[in-house]
Every structure is written in C-alpha cells, then in structure tokens.
Design brief:
Layout lengths: L2 E4 L5 E5 L4 E5 L5 E6 L2 E7 L3 E3 L8 E6 L5 E5 L2 E6 L9 E7 L9 E3 L4 E5 L3 E6 L2 E5 L4 H5 L10 E5 L4 E5 L2
Antiparallel strand pairs: 1-5, 2-3, 3-4, 4-5, 4-6, 7-8, 8-9, 9-10, 11-12, 12-13, 13-14, 15-16
Amino acid sequence: QLSTIPVPTCANVYFAEQLNMMVYTTGQDSSHYFSNPGDPANVASPGGILGIAESNGQRTRGLVETISGEIISLKDKSGYEVTPGSSTPSQWGVSRRWFGHGPCGVRAWDTADDFICYFDEDSGLYRYHNGVATQVGQELQGTWDQINKAASSQICVCIDNIRKEVHIALP
C-alpha cells in the first residue's frame, strides 16, 4: 500500500515536463523524489522514490531532461539515464551513462538547450551531449588543481544560452 509523504527538504527542485511531475533531490542520498502527477506537494512513498545505483554510495545532485528526451540523473562521480515506464517511479529503469566523474555539488552543474555541463573537483569541466560525457578545458587543469577541495561544494556552473558561454564560480 502506498502512502503520501510531504516533499523532503531538498537541494534541487526540477519540473519534469514530459512526466508532469516535480522532482526533488536532497543531495544527501542516492534518490530522487517524484511528486504525484499534477500534485507537486506530495510524494508517494515508497512508489515515488527512485534510488539511483544506491550501492555505489554516491549522492544524487540533480535530475534534468535533455532536449533529445533523455532524463539524466547526476551523481557525485557518475551519471545515469532514467527510463520511465507505466509503473511507479520506484520501478523505472536506470542505466549508467558515465562513471568516474560528476558534479561536486548541487550547484556544480547546469543545462543548456541541448547539453549539460558539470564540474568535477578532481578533473575539471565536462560536457554531456548526445549520450557522451567529454572533458573540456584541459588546458586549465593547473587552475583546477588549485581548487580548495574542502570548499568544492560551493562551486557553481552557469550556462548563458544567449552568449553561448559557460561560467564557473570557484571558491
């Protein structure tokens, strides 16, 4: 039997238009909390809670839809595609897209019209586009190496779609 829980305290909130659901990410566990369709204030428990590769110990950082229709879950050191089905979110498919790098905080990623950029505290900036995550800005590796890793949760990535620029705020 499913019961409804209030929305958890979260670090990231996203409206998944193709699902007509709000998606809440606490940034403290490996799950995304999906609202009931058309009811953004409530989450079905346990049916509305989707664990993403819970055994790897990484925290989820956010979830986003790409223009191509992919639904991507970003974790500390990996990314996963979520495949909705006719069942509850807790039973949807999850497949790994990349491993070994990921956003170092809940603000360390952003989306543009057709790609995602995220900042990994160990290796720098990455771009996810058409199913592939590629490192960009390797010429700045010396700068990335000087980042205060104790403050890496404060890193912020912001994409300007108009100017086609990626801005990174570093501590």
